[in-house]
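Batch manifest, entry 17 of 40.
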Amino acid sequence: MDSSVYLTPEYFLQHYYANWNPGTIMNKIRFDFDRYRYESNYPDLLWGHILKRGPNSDKWGFVTHSDDPVSLMYFQYMSGYGNNNARRSLEVGQYITPSSLESRRELGDDSQSQWWGGIQSSMTAVEEKHKNVDFYIIDGEGHCSFGLYYPLQDEGFQEWASPIVKEGIVIGNNRPSALCFLTSVALGAILVLLIREAASQKNRTKLLTDNEVQVSEIHHQSQRIPEATARIKGFIFHQASKASSCPWTAGYIVAFTLYFVCTLALQGFAHPLENPTFGPSAVGLSSSGINNPSLVIYNMEHYRLVTSAFLPSGIITYLLVLYSMYKNGAILESALMENNYPHWVFVLVVIIISMGVNLLYACIGNGATCTSLALVVGLNMFSGSLQSMSMSSVKKMYPTSWCFTFLVLLFGSTPLFPFDSVVALSASTMIGTILAFLSFERKQSEAIETESEYRNDSNSYSCEHVTTKQEASLRWGFVKGTGVTYLILYILLLFRVPSPDKKNMYPYLTGCSLVYSDQIGDFIGNYASNYGGRSLEDNQNLHDGQSLCAQLCVPHLVYRPLVWGVRKLGLFALEEGTCEENGYDEHIADKTVREYNVTLEVQVFSHSEE
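Output type: structure tokens
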């Protein structure tokens, strides 16, 4: 939007463009920079290259003012006009400071028409070739120097931008993250079906072993199958049969792993200070379906109540979930079946814990959280509680992992796990424990079984042995009550009864804490004016050292150390909150600060003049 160097006059391309070193970036996006570097329609060629690399369903928008003094100034200097200071800035690829400016009259009377004619020509050429690009023109003078601050003030912009930035529903949505999730879950479900089919086939083969005729017939039919196909089928069923005692756990692990790998491929890794678990950024996790109450309630993105259970926050949490599901989840599923519970009971337990955690967090939480780690904590608490109430005569003991669960809860309550909320972890602990004690019961019934019979010449008698058999059952009244409770919670979400902080509708803000200071007026003023800070308003009294407020969003991991350090050194006071909440309602400047590869956006506000 309002790009100062959108147009590339031939004079600039021939004399200065190489000094800005754009070839490095262009090569990374595979644009033939050496071939097109001197073309006057360079912007159109770059537009075409970018759009061809993406699907036609992706929508693009470009915003510009019809009269932009900043862009016009650059256009004039890039066309060969201007003073020595401006030319030196172009030579070394630097920001042109206000001291380099000359009046518009001295740089040519027809420069405005040339600049606007070039912009319109480029817009027309791009729109004719690419139907998924649209341009929005703000009629009047101005320059968009920070995000959508000025366009949002223009009536009609929101309606124009809505179809461009709006995300559709998961089902029927061709966004990569949605396709990844649906594909991962589908493959996990297919694996469950294969495992159960392999187990069923193994049981059928075992039953038919004593029937030579049927076995011979099966062998005869197998000869009709091509050898290669038979080998592949045999290998698949052999591997699947290894997980016959825990098909649902295996299916979840496959879906969980595939979705995480796909998320990393699409979103990449954030800086460790932003995500200490070595995973995507807050924005990346949001794109992949993390549970964000603000988006669930205000944007009706209810799919997050499901997707977050398949999403780890990073490599560390992925390994923790994988370990727990392999060491405890698989044994728990197997133990439930061997202790006379149907195979679907494990699925029911997972759904109750997962949906309970997500619904509770959506109702009372703030920020964003993945719930896969909370799910395994709930399963561990369920398994341990079930074992503590089970009798010694159970066929298979339920796994207990109190130490692992305690460590996860301990670290989960620290900034080391910023996207695994202590609210979700606590909710899973409560739900898993209550579920074991209130919905599962074991009944005893005595059965007399004849073990052996003994006879001799004098008398005869039979020896009978009395055994106790346990029958597993569910308290369906409690299960149904749980379902009704969840339905009520979901209705509350539909009617927006909970009111989470609306600032978390911006995913970036869920990964950091907002802080502000109103005691740094002189520092901010000098920094913004002398070192290239972008100013939103042309105000000579802007940096008078008074009534200025700066705010930034600090990663959770360093939030408390930073606030303590700044206060300890006595530089200035940092307080939790925003400038706007404290009466500074006019956004005037911003600066991107990058320290230790961490990018921070500093925003400067002042009191509006009444």
